[in-house]
Design brief:
The protein is built from 11 helices and 15 strands. The strands form 4 sheets. A 7-stranded mixed beta sheet has the order 3-2-1-6-7-14-15, sandwiched between helices. It has a 4-stranded parallel beta sheet with strand order 9-10-8-13, sandwiched between helices. Helix 1 runs parallel beside helix 9 and helix 7 crosses helix 8.
């Protein structure tokens, strides 16, 4: 745990921001942080759509900053999404601005953002998000140290369905995404068996294969393709053909959106100004090639944003509540520039600088990987087919 400083500035008002992609459990964080802060006599406000409520206040007729009261956070823990809204287009470090000639540039508005926090009397920020949002939080923490004006302390809360953040055992939203993906794969078994088809299921996860690995293994998929293992479809086709010979006329293949063929590139849909690249399309490519290699009828199901929606599981609700309360405890004990992190059986604090240093990828020697291989699941890394 990061030791708290011996002296710290008293807090009277806390701001909460939710940025990046939505995830089940966000509202649990908002409720816990709001109640824990108000129980300490602190005021709490929420920023609309990441930091856009402060950077573009004119776009919000009712105000870009909203008061968070006990009443406003009542009955929201079971709800998906975030009552504050979120965005992946409002990065204050690289804010997209259109030039007079119609082209776009990215500018740093972090000092302006710090001024807006001061104008609203905010002493501390709880930034809830993934690696991008936490990198922004770290930048604001560094800028605040040299910024003239009201001090601002920063605490990050890790949020991503992809579970790809270092220094935390799990992120809320991941359990819900895996549970829903597993349920969808379960349902596809019956239709795949009825028609004797190969079903390819594409799931989210960005550059990490946690969702694909866990949902695929839990549901008994016959092949799982993840970004950590460049895949060949020859070995996957061999599994499908072998199952056919054993009178199992169907197969289920789970593909992470960031999976990469051994001799190709990651499938990218595009990249807009101020946004990360959009992944997708790998499921269609895998299905087409498997159909060619096996002669089997193939179908593709892209779960996409369905994995982000819906009510959070009990695990994600509790984790969100624990993270929200821990963020307030961190501020109360004088911590600054830290991220709350699950370190069972406790919630710990780690420096934001360390939390955003690298992504947490699937270790190829982890127990779930060993289990999947023992079950005979193919990862497309066998001896390539020469046909």
């Amino acid at each position: 745990m990061v030791p708290p400083p011996s002296h710290h500035t008293p807090i009277s008002r806390v701001a909460i921001s939710t940025g990046g992609g939505d995830a089940p459990g966000l509202n649990a964080v908002i409720r816990a942080a709001t109640l824990a802060a108000r129980n300490r006599g602190w005021d709490v406000v929420g920023i609309r759509d990441g930091f856009n409520g402060l950077l573009s206040p004119d776009e919000y007729p009712d105000g870009g900053v909203v008061e968070l009261s006990r009443r406003s956070v009542r009955g929201i823990v079971h709800l998906g999404g975030t009552i504050l809204g979120t965005t992946n287009r409002g990065n204050p470090i690289a804010f997209p601005v259109q030039r007079p000639d119609g082209t776009w540039e990215e500018i740093d508005r972090s000092h302006e953002l710090l001024d807006r926090f001061a104008e609203h009397g905010v002493d501390a920020l709880i930034s809830v998000g993934g690696d991008g949002s936490l990198a922004i939080a770290h930048h604001l923490h560094e800028q605040a140290a040299t910024h003239d004006g009201r001090p601002l302390r920063v605490v990050g809360v890790p949020k991503t369905i992809d579970n790809d953040l270092e220094h935390t055992t799990s992120t809320f939203g991941f359990d819900t995404a895996v549970a829903f993906a597993s349920d969808c794969i379960d349902r596809l078994f019956s239709t795949a068996a009825s028609h004797g088809r190969v079903m390819v299921v594409e799931v989210m996860g960005r550059y990490a294969g946690w969702i694909a690995l866990n949902a695929g293994t839990a549901s008994g998929a016959h092949a799982i393709l993840i970004p950590e293992i460049p895949y060949r479809l020859g070995p996957v086709a061999d599994v499908i053909v072998e199952r056919e010979e054993q009178d199992a006329k169907f197969s289920i293949v789970v593909v992470a959106e960031g999976a990469i063929p051994h001799d190709g590139e990651r499938s990218v849909i595009g990249k807009a100004v101020g946004q990360a690249e959009r992944l997708g399309g790998v499921g269609e490519k895998v299905a087409a090639e498997l159909g060619r290699l096996t002669g089997k009828e193939t179908r593709v199901v892209v779960l996409g944003h369905l994995l982000r929606g819906g009510s959070p599981t009990a695990f994600d609700r509790l984790l969100g509540l624990r993270f929200g309360a821990a963020a307030i405890r961190a501020l109360d004990t004088g911590n600054d520039g830290v991220m709350v992190a699950l370190a069972p059986p406790t919630v710990d604090y780690v420096p934001l600088a360390d939390a955003t240093h690298r992504q947490k990828l699937v270790p190829l020697d982890c127990d779930t990987m060993h289990t999947a291989r023992d079950l005979g699941i193919s990862f497309g890394d066998g001896i390539p087919d020469t046909t």
